[in-house]
Amino acid sequence: MPTKNNPDLQHFLKESGFKLLAFARLSQCGYSLILYVLNCSVSGLDQIITTEGELAALIGYSEKDVREALTDLAQRHMIRLHFSDHSVAPEKSALRLGIQYDISKWELYFEDQVSSKDAVVFPFRRLGAAVLQVFDGQKGEKHDKSKDPTWQRIVESFIPGRNLDAKELKQSEEMAKVLIETHPVDQVLLMIRHFEHRIPTLSLLASSWQHYQELFEEETQKVDLLGARQKHHELDDRLRERVSSVLEKSSDLGLSEEELGVLRILQQHRHPRRQLFWAYQLRSRYPKLADFFHENASYMLSVTTSGSVVKRPHE
């Protein structure tokens, strides 16, 4: 690949330059221009020599649009632009054009400067006012963030064996905070430990989560599907029995209607161990079930935000 011989382009890709382009708010012609130049870079052409007329013909815009887009991109420091002869009009002069790989120099003209880390998009955010409580399609209330595991566990699991400078460490801390807002912390730790140095940055793990999730499932899948299914059924039944035992003592425990509702869902649901996982995330809402959650936490079956089971190597 030509990119291997271009450390500047490799740095651009590592720093998620394409994500930052999503925030650039360029014109259509501007996006066409910068993507054309990036395509040349990937092909091994760090800079190209051309004219405004040739560029206009290549990308299908008028010379006026191309001239305005080049000026805008140059003023934003997103490209390196030089004209061969400043004594003649720009449209008649040959130009040398290349991408500015150092995205820290880009000017996006926002009140609050953003970075590529702000462009990560997730299926939904696990925390905040609109938390999804997967019981009977009901929406949950605000999550108590103080009860969440610390993001530092993510960083401490990621950094061993890596020589990170201060900037890279700070970026890892920022992405660790994002990861625990979008995925269960134990699940993130499981992914980091499984892939180890195959995950170069936490930013890549966050933005390519589905890819790593599918790869994880492929690598940990076992052949004995019937045996695994039977084991899951047995554990489901065992959990239902424990739930029934608590329901029989509900009057003595003084359980609220909401706490009773959670237990009934676990008792009647087709996949009670998955439901226990979601209930456990909101356990602060069910204080009288604290002992129940503590004693049965080992029965939880972690799932992704899309409902897929997170398989563990020993399963």
Structure description:
It is a single chain. This protein is mainly alpha-helical. It has 15 helices and 3 strands. The chain has helices at 7-14, 17-21, 28-42, 52-59, 63-75, 152-158, 166-182, 185-195, 202-207, 209-220, 225-248, 250-253, 257-268, 272-281, 290-296; strands spanning 47-50, 79-83, 95-99. It has a 3-stranded antiparallel beta sheet. Helix 6 (152-158) crosses helix 7 (166-182). It is elongated and about 90 Å long. The chain starts with 6 loop residues before the first helix and ends in a 19-residue tail after the last helix.
**CATH architecture level-2 label of the largest domain:** Orthogonal Bundle
Structural class: mainly alpha
What separation lies between the terminal Cα atoms? 38 Å
C-alpha Rg (nearest Å) = 27 Å
The CATH class of the largest domain is Mainly Alpha
Number of helices: 15
Strand content: under 5%
Strand order of the largest sheet: 1-3-2
- How can the largest sheet be summarized? 3 strands, antiparallel
